Amino acid sequence: MSAVPGLREDCEALLGAFQEADTVRFERFAELWRERRFHTVFYGRIRALERSKITKKTLELAQQYFLPPYAFQIRVGALYLLYGLYNTQLCQPKQKIRIALKDWPEVQRFQQDLMDSQHYDAVYIFRSLRLARAFHFTAMPKLLNYRTKKKIQENEFKEEFKEPSNRVNSLITNDVLEELMNIHDHYQKMKCVISADKSQPDKALSLIKDDFVVTLKDITLEHQEWQQNRMKMFLNAKETDEISNKKEERTSLESEGSERASALARIKYKSYSAVVE
Fold it and tell me: Which helix (H) or strand (E) holds 63?
């Protein structure tokens, strides 16, 4: 739950509009930011302590959309959102963006994807945040307090922003591959018909690779395997985090039980000493 009522809805509306724009350009995001006057999100006559708390919660909310399982475009939008919020906050010194160490490899892979796709405006924004030391690397995604019994609330993922897991598989099915193979065979035969040598097509007509369908199938299987491995890594990291939380909770309970037993033993000893005297 966000510290400011309606903040989650406003952030999701901005990211949703950016998704509908069907682009990852910072220029378009900046237009949407200005249209919604997002720079005023921290305005208001509040005390420094409250302002610091609200800023921290706001950055924490925006950071959720920067990590999987959200779609690539939403994650780019979240990067721009974090950049805007970090630079328009009123706190001095500035509140930083918490990044758990377990999430940092995923962030680095995302940066590499941006560079490979030549989205240099997004790469520039990310490096600007790095140079400004805007990231606070932490052991846990959220701040933990000693002997806190309150369960950490799980993030609510917005389904519309998630990356479709079977988009490639839904487009390139076995039926589609079979149909492509039939079309490709027919295409090869037609080239032979109009060629001087009827047994094989002329080299001048070689406008497409002979193993096109096989290559497409291999690429599809490779993408499916990559996606499964990536999701497995994400689930393993989440499971490790949950196990760590359970161990800490169990250790805390055992420590508390040991302290209670020691306190009872001291009381009994004092009572026994008083009776003997």
Answer: helix 48-64
Residue in the block written with tokens 């377990």: 102
| Beta bridge pairs of residue 98 | 136
Residue 98 to residues 68, 86, 103, 134, Cα–Cα distance (Å): 15, 12, 10, 9
If DSSP codes are grouped into helix, strand and coil, which group holds residue 53? helix
Tokens of 77: 């939008």
Q: Give SS3 for 177.
A: helix
The distance between the two most distant Cα atoms of the chain, rounded to a whole number of Å, is 121
Encoded amino acid at 248, one letter: E
Interatomic CA distance for residues 277 and 272, integer angstroms: 9
**227-252 mean pLDDT:** 68
Q: Reduce the DSSP state of residue 67 to 3 states and report it.
A: coil
| Model confidence pLDDT, tens digit, residues 104-125 | 999 999 999 999 999 999 999 9
Residues 8-43 as b or e (16 or more Cβ within 10 Å = b)? beebbebbbbbbeeeebebebbeebbeeeebeebbe
Distance CA 241, CA 144 (A): 13
Please write the tens of the pLDDT for every residue from 244-270.
Answer: 666 666 666 566 666 767 777 776 666
> Residue 266: which H helix or E strand, with range?
helix 212-276
CA distances from 216 to 169, 175, 178, 221 (A): 12, 13, 12, 9
Chain segment 64-99, per-residue pLDDT in tens:
999 988 999 999 999 999 999 999 999 999 999 999
Q: Are 156 and 148 in contact (CB under 8 A)?
A: no
Q: What is the pTM of this model?
A: 0.61
Pairing, β 97-100 against β 135-138:
parallel
